């Protein structure tokens, strides 16, 4: 698709960028005297879910789906942003299978937005009609269900589906017909691989788990990463240092929150130039991810307010915003 076909959509997004939250607005929320005051600020800003409930998750449940609906209305290709949300479909698949196996209701675990209706995924799993699902997820559904029922190894099951999810992000990014989308997807997969390696190395996971844990990417050698993971966290950090990720190592040494913030800032840094492009899908990708960051920030702040965290504790958890 020609970049010029996105000109109108880009212009529409430009008009919405002024409504994005900035750090000063986030600080206003953080400095609110209590949860109810913060709620009022958000309702005045247009986050109307908080007018109906104190449950933070419920109040924000339609936040990102509405953003995606808005972008789909103006996108020439309605599926161009699917690579940004396909991971939610795999999460919903995991929730459905685990719910079926444990005889629990998975609906509270579903994430929106997703490409497939979560209820459709659940019913396909419940009836074991995995072939009803699209090809990009049906085989994963079949194989992961068999894996969990035969081994009852929840960690191996999670890793298997999560790796397939990362591969789907990469595959779907190619459909956006944008080099930037593919670069962004690869960076996301690279950082996720790093997070997985650090997590698994800390708990000394089995060979079977580690061997299935990583998705191929251009950002690192997954074979070398797997070998270092099996040896321990220090070896993972040594490998990361050898391939130029010293900045992540520094933040990891500070705290898990600092590390997560750094990973987020790497992605947000890629969006800085993308959002200034006048022709192409890049500004729409940047806008959607800006809203994802905004959603995370609101959730962190309001959840912190709700459980009585101090302002300092909330600030430590707040992600870097778009503007």
Quick summary of this structure?
It is built from 17 helices and no strands. With 323 residues, it is mostly helical.
Alpha-carbon Rg, integer: 20 Å
What is the number of helices?
17
User: What amount of the residues lies in strands?
Assistant: under 5%
Overall pLDDT score? 92
The amount of helix comes to 55-70%
Low-pLDDT residue spans: none
The tally of strands reads 0
Q: Name the helix and strand elements from N-terminus to C-terminus, one letter apiece.
A: HHHHHHHHHHHHHHHHH
Structural class: mainly alpha
Biggest sheet overview? none
What's the oligomerization state?
A: single chain
Strand and helix layout:
Blueprint: H1 7-17, H2 23-30, H3 35-45, H4 56-59, H5 63-74, H6 86-102, H7 118-126, H8 135-151, H9 154-175, H10 179-203, H11 207-211, H12 222-231, H13 233-242, H14 246-254, H15 256-274, H16 282-307, H17 311-317
Helix pairs in contact: 5-16, 6-7, 6-8, 6-9, 8-9, 9-10, 10-12, 10-13, 10-15, 12-13, 14-15, 15-16, 16-17
List keywords for this structure.
single chain, 323 residues, mainly alpha, 69% helix, 0% strand
Can you describe this structure?
It contains 17 helices and no strands. The two termini are 29 Å apart. α8 runs antiparallel to α9 and α15 runs antiparallel to α16.
């Amino acid at each position: 698709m020609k970049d010029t076909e996105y000109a109108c959509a880009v212009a529409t997004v430009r008009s919405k960028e002024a409504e994005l939250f900035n750090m000063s607005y986030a600080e206003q929320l953080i400095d609110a005297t209590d949860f109810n005051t913060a709620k009022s600020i958000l309702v005045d800003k247009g986050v109307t879910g908080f007018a109906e409930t104190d449950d933070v998750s419920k109040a924000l449940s339609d936040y990102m789906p509405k953003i995606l609906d808005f972008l789909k209305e103006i996108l020439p290709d309605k599926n161009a942003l699917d690579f940004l949300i396909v991971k939610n479909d795999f999460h919903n698949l995991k929730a459905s299978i685990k719910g079926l196996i444990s005889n629990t209701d998975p609906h509270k675990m579903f994430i929106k937005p997703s490409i497939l209706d979560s209820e459709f995924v659940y019913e396909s799993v419940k009836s074991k009609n995995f072939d009803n699902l699209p090809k990009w997820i049906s085989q994963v559904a079949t194989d992961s269900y068999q894996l969990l029922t035969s081994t009852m190894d929840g960690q191996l099951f999670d890793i298997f589906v999560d790796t397939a999810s990362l591969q789907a992000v990469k595959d779907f990014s190619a459909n956006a017909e944008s080099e930037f989308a593919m670069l962004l997807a690869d960076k996301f997969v690279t950082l996720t691989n790093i997070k997985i390696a650090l997590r698994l190395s800390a708990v000394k996971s089995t060979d079977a788990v580690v061997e299935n844990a990583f998705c191929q990417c251009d950002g690192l050698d997954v074979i070398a990463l797997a070998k270092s993971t099996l040896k321990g966290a220090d070896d993972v950090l040594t490998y990361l240092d050898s391939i130029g990720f010293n900045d992540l190592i520094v933040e990891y040494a500070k705290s898990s929150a600092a590390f997560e913030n750094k990973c987020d800032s790497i992605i947000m840094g890629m969006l800085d130039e993308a959002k200034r492009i006048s022709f192409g899908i890049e500004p729409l990708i940047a806008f959607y991810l800006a809203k994802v960051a905004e959603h995370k920030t609101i959730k962190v702040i309001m959840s912190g307010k709700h459980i009585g965290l101090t302002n300092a504790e909330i600030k430590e958890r707040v992600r870097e915003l778009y503007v």
